[in-house]
Amino acid sequence: MPSSEPPNAPVTPRVHLAEDTASLRAWCARLRDEPILALDVESNGLFAFEPELCVVQLSTRGDVVVVDTLVADPSCLADLIGPGGPLVVLHDLGFDARMLSRAGAPLHRVADTALAAAFLGRSSTGLGAVLASELGVDHDKTLQHHDWRARPLDARALRYLSGDVAHLLPLWDKLSAEVAAKGIASELAEETRHRLAEAQAPAEDARPPLLRVKGVDRLPVADLPLLRALLEARDDLARQLDVPPFKVLANDALVAAAQRRPRSVGELARIDGAHRGRARALSRRMLELVGEEHPPLTPEERAGLSPPRPSPAHVKARKRREGALLAWRKAEAARRDVNAQVVLPGHVLRALADGGAVSTRDLAAVSGLGDFRVERYGDALLALLAEPEPGPS
After folding, report:
1. Smallest Cα–Cα separation from 245: which of 71, 61, 50, 75?
2. Measured between alpha carbons, how far is 195 from 94 in angstroms, rounded to an integer?
3. Alpha-carbon dihedral sign for residues 121, 83, 59, 40
4. What share of the chain is helix, strand, coil (3-state, %, to 5)?
5. What are the tens digits of pLDDT across the range 294-315?
6. pTM
7. CA–CA separation, 352 vs 320, rounded Å?
8. Coil, helix or strand for 88?
9. 53: helix, coil or strand?
10. Rg (the chain; Cα; Å)
11. Other C-beta atoms lying within 10 Å of the C-beta of residue 126
12. 56, β-bridge pairs
């Protein structure tokens, strides 16, 4: 008798726990011939100085495998999720791809349900919202900010972890069918490739740490050497405690301390958060730093505070290109009845507006544009980007 369940109906999976490297290897061998898998990861990013991969969840259409990567070696996943393995479905792949790449198991063949939902014009693309709207699934997010270093992984944790992947394959079935019907599979695949490459590229911020503080360019230069020293002291303590720096003291409090230069605990306590909780352990050192001399800004720091400003002509030309691209994209999206991001993703539009593309070879070098768009839209884009002929004087 045929099943009465619709083809994309969620199923109740069998949940398995891989608690060591041997069991993970066995599961990888078993899953290697699957055509498609769902995957998610969990870390301790809100609780540790350096985020650590704590759990990986894998799902077929009937089984969920929860991998304890604090014990099992996650690099064993490399072959399973490598170029010859199954298609791997994730929701918002960026974080997962970064963590897996750092763990020695980079992703290769991927599909992203969050990106598919965005390209289909869904207004909310969070996992809970998409599962509710597409499959009628009420997704439990009560452990969304859990410290996944905590062990053992009890029944509640396993239910939550399995829920993050158990419905991804039916969700991909539904969204990918609509993507195909809309004729936007090439666009979705290109953007997925771009985002995967971005996520797996080295993510180190090349700027000096001082320049990563929001609003630092608006502070008096005389305050910046002290701010740099305060940042270093805060980060040293956070590293010792193995907590994120913001859980010791927020940047805003350090900025206020560099400006006000407190000379006593009483003055320091008047800065919000500067003498509470973990920050108390930093109070004495902060007061010492206020009274000390600090090395002046380095040439690199000074250069970063005053980057070269584009000329008015350059700003005007870029604004013209951006306006022309936005208007063309809107019209083309309406003509095709697709989301504007399908025609030109925002990062591609910004790259084109920045200028420099005068040939199809230049267009092909823009990450995320794709050869198929160059073929389809190349002439139109180059015409939009061309500088207008000067009018009669």
Report:
1. 50
2. 7
3. negative
4. 50, 10, 40
5. 999 999 999 999 888 999 999 9
6. 0.91
7. 12
8. strand
9. strand
10. 26
11. 15
12. 41, 67
**How many C-beta atoms lie closer than 10 Å to residue 162's C-beta?**
22
Q: Give which of 252, 249, 227, 251 is closest to 238, Cα–Cα.
A: 249
The residues near 292 (Cβ < 8 Å, ≥ 6 apart) are 229
Residue-wise pLDDT tens digits, 300-353: 999 999 888 999 999 999 999 999 999 999 999 999 999 999 999 999 999 999
pLDDT in tens, 52-99: 999 999 999 999 999 999 999 999 999 999 999 999 999 999 999 999
Phi and psi torsions of 220, nearest 5°: -60, 140
pLDDT tens, position by position, 177-220: 999 999 999 999 999 999 999 999 986 778 899 999 998 998 99
Nearest Cα neighbor of 105 from 85, 70, 78 is 78
- Whole-number Å distance between alpha carbons of 161 and 179: 28
Say how many C-beta atoms besides its own lie within 10 A of residue 57's C-beta.
Answer: 23
Handedness of CA 358, 362, 364, 367 (dihedral sign): negative
Report how far residue 270's alpha carbon sits from residue 274's, in angstroms, rounded to the nearest whole number.
Answer: 8
Among residues 191, 196, 190, 192, the alpha carbon closest in space to that of 98 is found at: 196
pLDDT > 60? residue 392: no
d(CA 158, CA 384): 53
Residue with tokens 């199923």: 11
pLDDT classification of 13: cutoffs 50, 70, 90:
confident
Residue with tokens 């869904």: 122
Read off the tokens for 191: 């953007």
107 neighbors 89 (Cβ within 8 angstroms): no
Cis amide bond preceding 152, omega within 30:
yes
Q: Is residue 167 within 8 Å of 137, Cβ to Cβ?
A: yes
Q: Are 59 and 38 in contact (CB under 8 A)?
A: yes
| Portion of the chain with pLDDT greater than 90, in percent | 90
Structure confidence at residue 6 as a pLDDT band (50, 70, 90): very low
DSSP state at residue 358: -
Burial 278-301 (b: 16+ CB within 10 A, else e): ebeebbeebbebbeeeeeebeeeb
